[in-house]
Every structure is written in C-alpha cells, then in structure tokens.
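Troubleshooting: if your tokenizer reports a length mismatch, compare your output against this known-good record of 146 residues.
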Amino acid sequence: MSSPTPPPASSRLLKPTLDSKYHIDYEWFANTPGEDLRIYLLTHLPSDVRDRVTAAGEGVEMDFIDPATGEVTRLDALRLALRQAAEAEGFINRDIAVVDCLFRVFIRNDNTPLSPRELADITGHDAQNIHRLLSGTRVYKGLRLA
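Known-good structure output:
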C-alpha cells in the first residue's frame, strides 16, 4: 500500500516557531481601518518630545548623522525623535504592554527581523508568550512574520 501524496508545498501552511522571524509590517497600518501609524509612533515618545514633534507638524525634515557610520540621511521630526528616544535608557522595559515593548525593539533595531527567542533575550519577556502573541490569528500593531 502506498502512502498518500502530500499536498503541494504552496498549499501547506507553515507553523511559526520560536525561531521564526518577525518585523513591523508598516503596510498593515495603511490597510487596517482605525489604525494610524503616526499617532501610534507618537505614543512611544516622552510627552515633552511628543508635544514638540506635534507642534513641528508633518513633513519637516532634518539631517540625521548616524553615529556608527557617519552617513547623513534626511528624517522627519517624528523619525528623528524616535531614533533619539530609542537610544534612551528605559525605552525598552517591562512596565509597558508586551506589544509596545516588542514594537520598540523593532524601532531601535531599524526593523531588522527577530525571533521570539531573540525578542525574549532583549525584553526579558518569556519567549513562549511572545511566540503565542505573535503567531496567533490576530496581528498586533503590524507585528507579523517577516
């Protein structure tokens, strides 16, 4: 008796593991009613910085010099403020919601994909809990498989 033929690879769903890589899918914000990326990004800034960025408005760009490479890029006020906030002590901490903490890791690392194991090492949250959160059917704040 021959064994049944497995379904074609394209029809199989891959189940995420603790080593699957995740990132911020910024398009998710554009495609999800009621979600606004700019407003959500502003929530990751200290209130005094948030007020200053909000007052500056959208579209105001400034030069940013990467301290590691010396490369100069143009960033809007919000992105520049986020880069600076991301380097501050306490930006990634366990006192905020897990989803926000994970999102901040991706802000800090320029959205380089990371696994739940790697995220656990950075945040101090349990890798299994991160895996369950990110691999469920609901997408939280654009955090999805890379």
